[in-house]
Amino acid sequence: MDLTTLTIKQCHEGLKKGDFTSVDLTKAYLENIKKFDKEINAFISVDEQGALVQAALADKKISSGAEFGLLCGIPCSIKDLILVESKVCTAGSKILEKYVAPYNATVVQKLKKEGAVILGKTNMDEFAMGSSTENSAFGPTKNPHDKTRVAGGTSGGSTAAVASNMSCYSIGTDTGGSIRQPASFCGVAGLRPTYGSVSRYGVVADASSLDQVGPIAKNIEDLKIVFKVISGKDLMDATSANYEFQDKDFDIKKITIGVPKEYFSKGLDKEVEKIIRSAIKKAQDAGAKIVDISLPNLKYALPAYYIIQPAEASANLSRYDGIKYGLSVPGENLLDVYLKSKGQGFGAEVKRRIMIGTYCLSSGYYDAYYKKAQQVRELIKQDFVDAFKKVDLIFAPVSPFPAFKLGENTSDPLSMYLADIYTISVNLAYLPGVSVPAGKIGDLPVGLQIIGNHFEENKILSVAEFIEKS
Amino acid sequence: MISKEEVEHIAKLARLELTEKEVSKMQKDLTEILDYFKVLKSAPEPKTTNHSLQTTNLRMDEAKDSGIADKLVNAAPDKKDGYIRVKAIL
Known about the structure:
B: two-stranded antiparallel sheet
């Protein structure tokens, strides 16, 4: 039996019955990493020894006959944007190449409390800015389904690791689509939860009003299991919400699904459209009510996002000035240290975003750009409020196209930004959304995006499970 | 096209050193991206103004021992006696 193809639930059952141990599972995953990761490059660092120690501890607990949770002894990976105590956390950047995390992020602490086994830290676009994991200072991640193509981004290391059985599940972050889009490209399940449902404490900040941590897994059931563990109020994150996820089955016959026409306009690949339409049809055939809706301000989402995200990021990234941590380049005076450390530490896309953000926040431009973008954000939020008065869920593509070729969009920032055109509105409106595998174009997977109202992850996941099984 | 001087001014505000080559690439990229933002001009005014999802509930501002102060100072590239050392600014 190939242990690495098992889901969390199946692993748990096997551990319970004594069919295999956590050490067996961990070794099987480490073996796959050794076999595949030279080519895929899903991991920035692998902690073989630490993982085996955690696995042995989990086995001890399991064999003692004590109750153990679903994640106990299950090997996972963590996006390298999230702090794991005493391990290097690079955020995909040269500037943090040697930065050792001084504490655990709340999500990591929660996983460790459950007895999770952390195999390593996964590759990503530098500071979570990008759409393909090609902006990593540690080389791009390749798509396991076609190694000439990107894994998507920014959590491309996490989705590629799950897709190629190099970890059972993974924890990613989604600021503009960074869980859903690579999940779609790699053919795995990925949930971007409601803003505030998972603590951001110990997660390197990109754009604080958009960032959210979420699970990536082999199927929807596993997403639920991980989300249940990592979500909830945290005193260390003032924006975290008092929210307890409750798994619940919804009758598809009682669900109304909105199909926004703006998501099916020009730019959408015909083959992707076919797959999404057929998923809608499946829900309809099973008794769901399908309604055409409109989100009239969707056309403003991408430009508004590319003002708000860089603006917030330019402020958040000012901390990498060579003084408190990370790369420090010697200079003649203090200003020189700042200039050189940032100039030599940051990659091209991060520099571009810092420049856009600084420009949009600078005197004389603030009203025309940042303030206007915030107003547009409110319009988009209101569009969704209006839509959810009429429908339970929204079905849409995740990305206009399947995984593109490595290098195809790297020289043109605007064409790269288009890969997120269907995901970013969800972040702007603080909403949850899932990517569930819905079909393939040749070897390339295509995900269906299911968007729900705030804190209605259970409705999204219940219907996603129906799609997955149908 | 955004001028070279403008790019250099923004880079200075951002405390970001750019090479000559980066400045001219940035001129091109920023011009294209800022042009793309023009579509926002046609967006209507929103009727509502509340941006955030929920009211932030803050904890009490009480000093507690985090237990990691030493680790945080140790992460600094240049430190002495529990302090982070920086270049003189006067």
